[in-house]
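Minimal example, chain plus potassium ion.
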Amino acid sequence: MSFLAIDIGNTRLKWAQYASPQPGAAVLAHGAVFLETIDELAEKEWRDMAAPRSMLGCVVATEAVRRRVEEQLELWDLTPRWVVSSPREAGVVNGYDHPARLGADRWVAMIGARGHVLARGPARPALVVMIGTAVTVDAIDRDGHFLGGLILPGHGIMLRALESGTAGLRVPTGEVMPFPANTSDALTSGGTYAITGAIERMRRHLRERSQGEEPLVLITGGAGWKVAPYLDMPHELLESLIFDGLLNIQSHRLAL
Ligand SMILES: Nc1ncnc2c1ncn2[C@@H]1O[C@H](COP(=O)(O)OP(=O)(O)OP(=O)(O)O)[C@@H](O)[C@H]1O
Ligand SMILES: CC(C)(CO)[C@@H](O)C(=O)NCCC(=O)O
Ligand SMILES: [K+]
């Protein structure tokens, strides 16, 4: 009954094979590749993997990228399925003006987050933060309703925008400091605190909306570990939030 979960972001494709399509299933294999190398998956990373029985993926990259991944999936006898954001799924209600326009990664991560909220005890609001190519900060209330969220540039995009938009900024890596006193530290600190500032702001919005109840703050994405140490609030770093969401969706669909 093994299940393949795939997350195609704007920079990398991440995949994980699970023993079954159930939350908490054992991971049999996993990996990540840059989008430049996705045409080699079938002859490299996936070549010696036991054939998965089913798959579910989430894509925010282009149609062309999705098609190239589907070609690689021809290695096995499976139907490629990709999550499309919908008005409701697996206990989460989508409050976006146009639910289908919500990034599938955000939707799936929120469904994963909702599972973690309910697994930890009584229902409570949650803030779902994804720190990848772009950064998103999404709010879910106690009832599992997605209220809305922020999109901002990731660290890499912020620095590249500054480099190309100014004459005097180069972007060597600096350190995060309270009072940066050189250009490198000022840029690195500015990027990091832009992200933590957005998270703090959204946490305040959500707390005010929730009669003061403290939200569970869940951080995910390739660069989450770099930002998390500067976040002045209780939080959890969960690398697998999108995969957890894909497992929740798949198990809910099988149960219907
Ligand atoms: N180990 C690292 N060292 C330096 N920068 C990193 C590292 N990991 C991630 N980054 C930076 O963080 C950003 C997002 O990284 P990454 O591609 O790992 O995230 P992701 O969650 O896989 O993104 P996406 O899902 O959008 O593809 C990039 O701009 C990248 O430059
Ligand atoms: C915001 C990103 C790039 C984050 O990966 C992705 O979720 C996306 O392309 N979203 C579509 C637009 C939206 O979510 O409103
Ligand atoms: K992502």
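The radius of gyration is 19 Å. Residues 217 and 234 are 7 Å apart (CA to CA).
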